[in-house]
Sequence to fold (71 residues):
Amino acid sequence: MKCPFCGKKTVEGYVQGARKIFFTEDIHNFFLAPDFDDLLLSKNNWTKPNCKAYHCPDCKKVIVDYSENEA
Ligand SMILES: [Zn+2]
Fold:
């Protein structure tokens, strides 16, 4: 995948975490699970939460593909 910001080839990999990975418009201060209106990004949430992602080291951006999430 080409970086949409600079056009160079991105590095394909994963964003991985210890808990469900989600996008939220407001930072959670205490409860680190997604709310009903948050967007779950990760799959394999019981064993190794991860989502496919593309990294551009030049732009320092990561693009997440959450089409395989387990929402
Ligand atoms: Zn870039």
Q: What stands out?
A: Residues 46 and 53 are 19 Å apart (CA to CA).
